[in-house]
Amino acid sequence: MDPTTQKQPEEQERHSLGVLQLLQSASKELQNYTLFLTKDPQAPIRALLNLGNEISALLDTVPNLFKLSHLLCNLQTALNELEATRGYGLRSIIRRQAIYYKISQLAGQIEREAQAYLDKDNIFRLVRTLDRSRDEGEQVKVLTELEERLSRGFDRDYQELILKAKVSCPRTIREHAAQVMVALIRFNRNVFVGLVLMGPTLEALISMGSCRSMEVLTSLVALVRSPLIDEIESLGEVPRIMNLLRSRDPATRAAAFDCLCEIAYHGRKEVIEAMLEQGLIETLLELQRQEQIDHDHDRERDDRGRGSEDRNEEEEEEEEEKRGGFHGAAAKFAVQVEVGEGLTNQERREFKMEILRRVKQACVSEAEAASVSAEVLWGSSP
């Protein structure tokens, strides 16, 4: 087969989508135009009808455009009526305003119809690309387009298209798809939160064990709060999240810690107890201790090269920023527990004392115990 012949359908599809996008934009502009009684909308109407001529040319090759073509014919009729109403008498003015209103309504219908076709194509390409394409770049692109469309706000018809779509994809793309899940919940929490709570989403996210999957889980916890945290705790997933603190990837370790802090902020007594019983404070102290050792080692090496007196304040600040995410980690966790939303005042006080007890037991020296205890006691005040 001639390669040019193979490309023709793709080029035709891109052309038709481009025309529909222009049509949608022009119809939206026309709606805004007709809100002002001092403006004559004939110029934007003609611009819209010129695009309508291209829609008519596409009818033989692109399905489901007949309704759009019919609306454009009605717009042409309204334009003819407007041109026939030229007088300045009260009746003519009222007649023109009625036609302006009709034109605005037609423009709104044209915009919605064009968007509906674009949405169907968007979901069709999403499913086709995730199911068939091996190009991760293309897969990420369609997921990004989906996320952008969701960010525009709720649309019931688009919701139906999403619910009916079924796709499968490899792990890398699942991470991008997980980010889209956050956008779906922002799009309509009441409908899509059930997919997280009742489906395998939680276990899949935690099983991925990556920085991105933990970032997504943190966002979901912040959006859904107690119901999601209760589900995490009931599934026994808290220890698995804590295990990611031992990941070889520093970004994954930091993301897992952020997730645990978010859980601590919104979680109830039971989930905080589960984290403490699994040795979270001891793990955090070990991580921040190792981070401090690594930091001191790097600093000594740099000082041997040029001398510590050559350091300026800006360089000191840059060094602090380069440190990992576990500097003062135990105190940061204590802050989340103390200022969180899921506990009573009595429970906050009890957990603070328990954290202090565990800090004293886990520290390797009295100096470390005193320093960390002070951070927990005084650094946790909001």
TrEMBL record:
Residues 291-329 are annotated as: Disordered. Residues 291-310 have a biased composition (Basic and acidic residues). Residues 311-320 have a biased composition (Acidic residues). InterPro entries: ARM-like, ARM-type_fold. It comes from the Eukaryota. PANTHER family: ARM REPEAT SUPERFAMILY PROTEIN, ARMADILLO-TYPE FOLD PROTEIN-RELATED. This is Uncharacterized protein. It comes from Eucalyptus globulus (Tasmanian blue gum).
